[in-house]
């Protein structure tokens, strides 16, 4: 099984590269294929655990090989990940590309800022930045840099909807994606000031007029003291929430903006899959942002592989039978 998985992953990696990889590129791809296969087999991002799931040389030799790969400055996402992300977006752009942006802890003392595209009940990774920080928000300039990287991957003419929580309501970010004619629905704070027809107020003033199960939109509002806009300011009290949430959007329909925003949490599901429910990326001992970013090339491609297999199983009906680790057959969940 391990040999078949390794061969299948290696063949898949070559599909988006022109010609037959040669020299260093071939060696780097072989190492990446081994890491992906080992991550899937071990359900871990720990290098010794990954190495034990690869056939061939001794695990100690494989670990050294992986370490050299992670330290190699020639390993860049532009070569080894972004072509797959671009192909993924091209395959999904027949429908709106719903992009979610969020941050999470990875490795030792680092965080990643990630953009993922929503696919069914998951968000699939598109691009990320890793930085040395234990917690907190990334500065807006980093948001802009990451979003600009993603914009280069989006097929021309695709409808794009960007979702984010209260960290991502910056005026500069709104202006940038509006320039690209992207739509957005971003959470914001109840204390944010608004202006409408010369009258100034705050989101929590609007909340006083909203009951559970209701939403209220203020069209053509100007956002913050910088008077950015016009935007649609929304106060939405979901029945499953204890208090209203507040959104800012460039959409014309408050209902549509809320519908899209409800998909934002799916990027949190992705982080759970990468960490406590999957590859335990937060337990990696790596503390260098560049090396962690390279490790994420492997874990994110492994995630693509797992989601692909899941989607294939659903389409073929294989999901009705699950092969347990012990080799027994279990009933479908």
Descriptive tags:
two-stranded antiparallel sheet, 333 residues, ten-stranded mixed beta sheet, 41% helix, alpha+beta
Report on the architecture of this protein.
This protein has a domain at 182-262. Mean pLDDT is 91; it is low at 323-333. 41% of the residues lie in helices and 24% in strands. It has 333 residues and is of the alpha+beta class. Helix 7 packs parallel to helix 8.
How far apart lie the N and C ends? 24 Å
Kindly provide the radius of gyration, computed on alpha-carbon positions and rounded to a whole number of angstroms: 22 Å
Q: What amount of the residues lies in strands? A: 15-25%
H-E order: HHHHHHEEEHEHEEEHEEEHHHEE
Global mean pLDDT: 91
Largest sheet: 10 strands, mixed
Low-confidence stretches: 323-333
Give the beta-strand count. 12
User: Spatial order of the strands in the main sheet?
Assistant: 3-2-1-4-5-10-9-8-6-7
Oligomer state equals single chain
- Percent helix: 40-55%
Given helix and strand content, the structural type is alpha+beta
Question: Shape from CA axes?
Answer: elongated
Task: Output the number of helix runs.
Answer: 12
